[in-house]
Amino acid sequence: MKNSRLMVFAILVLAGILxxxxxxxxxxxxxxxxxxxxLKQSKTSQKQSQTIVSSPQAQQDHVSDxxxxxxxxxxxxxxxxxxxxxxxxxxxxxQKVINELTQxxxxxxxxxxxxxxxxxxxxxxxxxxxxxxxxxxxxxxxQSVAYTITYDTDKKQITDIS
Length: 162
Description:
By secondary structure, this protein is of the alpha+beta class.
């Protein structure tokens, strides 16, 4: 009798352990999926870093081309009326940026009525990511304005301006 009670108790303990282990399988599957995603992201980042390290001249050329495009973009939107933004800036900037510029300058500011704007300074904040960040100074005889611009090298367009 005592042995059968001991046997039932052992079976219940083992069944409890088995159920606990089965419940942990779903959590482990989720962790595996997260770890695979992290590994994939790390491999992509490592590949980008290796490309930059192995070909710094190519990265420098890439940054130089992006800087020229950002400068052209700022000169373009600073010296044109807001009504022409959707057509003129298409392809240079995301629709979000074009809309933001149009809403900001539309009712009260028309650059074309004011003095000509020059872009005396374009400074890069971070040249080693796929999103390049620039600080751009635009000035006329009357005022100077600073913009922070994000250029996405994958999409090859400006994705944010503030």
